[in-house]
């Protein structure tokens, strides 16, 4: 059922039945019975549409019941949630799709679920598998000077029915190291976004303009993502809760430490999976004729195409002098790999005009998602100012805005999410599956005077905060999140 479509009402049924009676010559008594029957059918449909939604207090859509794997003991069995990920898997993408001879057709798109790992339902929880990538900036260069690296961090988004609240768990095992030999002017693998598209899990490098596919491999046999046995899964959960208590965090919640990125200390040991990093697309800056790579900051799926965007403001010097407008272009990639370069300056400027940040003021964007259900663009600006850009002051210009725009950016609304934390800015977000694009999980990062930290938060598109800013990483910027 499309929850956004208008429902027939009793008034609608009454009007229709009276018109039928006036236009027909059938005996009035028979028409009256037909009209009453029609009104009852409409009333039943209307009441059905208003009924509580499937499970967990009506929070999730009925589609969750058919998509989720039920587990009475709270363990992901080998033929359960984890097994839904195919070998060499990686995402499904809101509007992802399948491949035939490397080309996706519209018919293929319905066969790849999103997310690829089925949600796990237990008597008191719904668990969604999530992945996050890190942007290490200049620290991404490996000591041997021959490769650059990042990390893929995995965990769970958990909804608890007893408290009607969300929490986030980070896998206690070390994050998977992502390596590449591609760089531009000595920098590379500075991953800014993670998105599922056409059955592939893609990560954007904002230095080289390369979009990498992350192919998850079982560390033991190299044949796809590792599927935990019930005993392994139970042990991981027990270890996660132990670390949570040791870190003085609530149950089901703990954060990623530097030691876990380095593979030592709490949660130490060898990662149970590895990731093959495969270049898929190369994006040139601006209109596509520049030698420099595109600084990709956000990505989403619209009408079965991957849309990749940049900062959304003019490229300026450290004191706000305009150099060019290349960051105001976007890239559109279809299932065949064809790339189109589109000038989005009018759309970006429209958002600035609606927020009082027109030039020389600015908005900086690192996260955006298209909602096919609402037919709207949603942006969480990272920085905002009515004053000219200044690279020092910019670190204290975080926002708490959610911008919603129609397809042509003719109508733009702004919703405030919680209170402003000037040091923190949004870096990535996704709609929580099966919430009809009404609930959002987002990452915020803090980067002041070289000190880094990352937070997760959950809220509705109407401004209700469901999980306040919660620390998930120390000394690391997580700049991409996706349901995997």
TrEMBL record:
Q: Which cofactor does it need?
A: Ca(2+)
Q: Which SUPFAM superfamilies match?
A: Apyrase
Specify whether Cell division is a keyword of the entry.
no
- What name is this protein filed under? Soluble calcium-activated nucleotidase 1
Q: What is the lineage of its organism?
A: Eukaryota, Filasterea, Capsaspora
Query: Does Transmembrane show up as a keyword for this record?
Result: yes
Transmembrane spans: 31-48
Q: Domain of life here?
A: Eukaryota
Q: Which GO terms describe its molecular function?
A: calcium ion binding; GDP phosphatase activity; UDP phosphatase activity
GO biological process: one example = proteoglycan biosynthetic process
Membership in a protein family: Belongs to the apyrase family.
| One Pfam family of this chain | Apyrase
Instruction: State where Ca(2+) binds.
Output: 192-193, 297, 366, 427, 479
Q: Gene3D superfamilies from the xrefs?
A: Apyrase
Keyword tags: Calcium, Hydrolase, Membrane, Metal-binding, Transmembrane, Transmembrane helix
Q: What InterPro entries does UniProt report for this protein, alphabetically?
A: Apyrase, Apyrase_sf
